[in-house]
Amino acid sequence: MPCLYISTNVNLDGIDKDPIFSEATKAVAAIIGRPQHLVMVILKGPVAISFNGNKEPAAYAEMVSMGGITKQVKRDLIATLGKILEAKLSIPRTRFFLKVYDTTAAGNSSKL
User: Fold this and answer.
1) How confident is the model at residue 22 (pLDDT cuts 50, 70, 90)?
2) What is the domain extent for residue 85?
3) I need a surface site. Which of 37, 58, 63, 73 has the fewest CB within 10 A?
């Protein structure tokens, strides 16, 4: 089951989060090649984040999947999720960081 955990310093009160969940779920499923009903998305905010020495809108995300992760998949996830966060939360793509774990790589848990 792929799990995407997004933390942001953007205040999410009053923001319709359903489109973020929907678009992120569809993107992860399509890019990794898993059914949507197996994708979990967690969105947390606001959390304290400083990036490049300032607290302007930013996001940090972790993607955990059992297989399906390649360098190209990672690039596609970064690009697509960055577009979603920029469109829905006004977080510039240059202020979004994604850490990806493939739990089947190198035996236990590895970073790509």
Assistant:
1) very high
2) 3-111
3) 37
